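Ops channel
N.P.: pipeline sanity check, posting one input/output pair.
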């Protein structure tokens, strides 16, 4: 007698990149239905992590890194990375953030624009949300926020689209990383057919 296979979600396991002055934990994806897709996703993760570390890698700089699984649901994987570097003699270290969002079925690496219908409606909705958050939470700015772009870094959670900016991009160092999580309820009307937002909203 044969039993149907359980529809299990992918496993995400930590891997350590440890060498002189570098100690970075990054994710490895296992358990995908398509081995070629799994291999492609893991190769791009390693490449992105390396490219975050490479510009800061020298004998005077200590680099540490970690990741967060923001979403692993409905064949969508969204990962968020923080790389912290401190150069000897500097006043303080710097944190750089990045994110990757994939289809676990096809291996597609989504850009923000891929999630939405053509046009700028989604950009206007996100801009308005961010500006209202800045105002209502009295977030200190070093320069005025104007707009995101169609290639804006983002991540997905079960209920929200996360938009974030780098240290010093709009806020002082002491504020940390500015993050804005927009509910899917505000965005689902502009989501493209087949968009992860359609699956999650």
């Amino acid at each position: 007698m044969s039993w149907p296979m359980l529809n299990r979600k992918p496993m995400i396991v930590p891997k350590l990149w440890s060498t002189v002055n570098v100690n970075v934990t990054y994710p490895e994806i296992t358990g995908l239905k398509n081995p070629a897709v799994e291999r492609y996703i893991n190769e791009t993760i390693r490449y992105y992590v390396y490219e975050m570390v490479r510009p800061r890698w020298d004998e005077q700089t200590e680099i540490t890194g970690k990741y967060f699984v923001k979403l692993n649901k409905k064949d969508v994987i969204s990962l968020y990375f923080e790389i912290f570097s401190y150069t000897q003699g500097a006043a303080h270290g710097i944190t750089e953030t990045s994110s990757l969002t994939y289809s676990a079925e096809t291996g597609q690496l989504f850009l923000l624009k891929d999630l939405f219908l053509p046009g700028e409606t989604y950009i206007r909705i996100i801009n308005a949300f961010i500006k209202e958050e800045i105002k209502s939470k009295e977030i200190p700015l070093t320069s005025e926020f104007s707009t995101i772009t169609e290639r804006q870094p983002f991540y997905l959670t079960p209920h929200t689209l996360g938009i974030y900016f780098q240290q010093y991009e709009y806020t002082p160092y002491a504020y940390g990383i500015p993050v804005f999580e927009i509910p899917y309820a505000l965005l689902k009307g502009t989501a493209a057919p087949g968009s992860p937002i359609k699956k999650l909203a």
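N.P.: looks fine end to end. The radius of gyration is 19 Å.
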